[in-house]
Write a structure and sequence with these properties.
67 residues, mainly alpha, 43% helix
Length: 67
């Protein structure tokens, strides 16, 4: 996961991960590049992700327990 910075500033991290993925794809028979969360999924998809995590989009913000 990239640093928690502006969404557009995360793009270089996704670009670098795609490059690494492509270099290792044939060696390790990879077929999944999981990048992106509810905050930055659109940029991750633009940069090659084929699996995103949308927990907050689907279930809302986490509720912290007061235990």
């Amino acid at each position: 996961m990239p640093p928690f910075i502006d969404v557009e500033e995360r793009r270089p991290f996704f670009k670098q991960m795609l490059k690494i993925y492509q270099e290792l794809q044939d060696i390790y028979e990879l077929n999944t590049l999981s990048m992106g969360t509810s905050d930055d999924y659109s940029v991750a998809l633009e940069e090659g992700s084929n699996l995103i995590r949308l927990g907050t989009q689907l279930f809302g913000q986490r509720v912290r327990s007061q235990v």
